[in-house]
TrEMBL record:
A Pfam short name: DUF2000
Superkingdom field: Bacteria
Protein name, as recorded: DUF2000 family protein
InterPro entries from the UniProt entry: DUF2000, Pep_tRNA_hydro_II_dom_sf
Classification via Gene3D superfamilies: Bit1 (3.40.1490.10)
Amino acid sequence: MHFDTKIAVVIRTDLEAWQKLNVASFLTSGIAAAFAGCIGEPYEDGSGTKYLALIGQPILIYGADRPALTRALERALARNVTPAVYTEDMFKTTHDAANRAAVRAVGRADLNLVGLAMRAERKVIDKIVDGLKFHT
């Protein structure tokens, strides 16, 4: 199936495995919250057990160092794409309001980014993540 949009998650490569999974989970929730139309229908197995709906299109996950994350953020904003962000300071917080305060306390140029997620037209995402490799 061909999608007109693309979802990309960019995760800093020097994180611990648990941090990468945590960041990817939080960032994709931002996509789901912002783009309700990207959510598919609920699942049901052959026994009739019901399950939650998921994002209905592939999510491409890229790896990056800190400068590449900053570059991707600037490229996204220059193309009017609003990304979900996760900063290193957010690992020290315990709830959503504290996460927002941690981001608000730092200017954009000084954000210690560990991850971004965005959804936009395919060609736009391709320009934002140009030069990045899939995360391994």
